[in-house]
Write a structure and sequence with these properties.
The protein is built from eight helices and no strands. With about 220 residues, the chain is mainly α. It starts with a helix and ends with a helix.
């Protein structure tokens, strides 16, 4: 079998549409995951024992269930439990967002805890209220700690988004599989999306390593 470039030139709009859908899915999942993650981080940082137990239970549950199993469960089981028909896109986004909430929650918690306790105590001694304390002292320092792990997780989420093809979500992997079935040219389409993901994820990975090295130099 030889590589036929004309196949890609003929069907590149379909692949591009699948790629754009992938980006939208990742952005929506990150947004929902950030909201869930903030809630979970606040529970884990709470001084109330019941809140910490709930937060840890959520993290332990959704970080230890494979994303594929979670996608299948939300797609096949959740609609039966709530007796509501849900689209493949909605269930796929929900499944990835639940897992993202657990991972981002841990990133947020670690970033906040990395801020020296003396910074908060000093700000409180100066009479700062909660909003300027967090907005001007804690969060700017915590964000510097969080940025590299968030970038790393975004690259993982880009790869995980291809799992949604198994439930029929029209992202880039599903587009490649569909076009390959129509033309019997799987080599071209799956090679193309492999190149797409490499060109997107590799710069993110380099950027994340740069952020981590910069953070290490600042810490010294």
């Amino acid at each position: 079998m030889f590589f036929d470039w004309t196949v890609l030139s003929r069907y590149w709009p379909d692949l591009l549409l699948g790629l754009l859908n992938t980006f939208w899915i990742v952005l929506i999942v990150l947004g929902l995951g950030a909201v869930i993650g903030l809630l979970i981080a606040s529970l884990n940082l709470s001084e109330k024992r019941w809140a910490a137990i709930v937060g840890r239970a959520y993290v332990n549950c959704f970080r230890n269930i494979p994303e594929m199993v979670l996608i299948f469960w939300v797609y096949f089981c959740l609609p039966q439990l709530i007796n509501v028909n849900l689209s493949a896109l909605l269930t796929g986004v929900l499944a990835l967002a639940l897992a993202a909430g657990a991972n981002l929650g841990e990133i947020f918690r670690a970033g906040i805890q990395a801020v020296p306790k003396g910074q908060r105590e000093g700000a409180m001694a100066l009479g700062l209220s909660a909003i300027p304390l967090w907005g001007c002292v804690v969060l700017p320092q915590a964000l510097r700690q969080m940025l590299a792990p968030i970038v790393n997780y975004t690259t993982e989420l880009l790869k995980q988004s291809t799992l949604l093809s198994v439930i029929g979500v029209m992202e880039v992997a599903h587009s490649a599989f569909t076009l390959g079935g129509q033309t019997f040219r799987y080599l071209e389409f799956f090679t193309a999306i492999g190149v797409f993901f490499f060109l997107i994820i590799f710069p993110f990975s380099v950027f994340a390593r740069h952020l981590m090295h910069s953070r290490g130099r600042l810490a010294r």
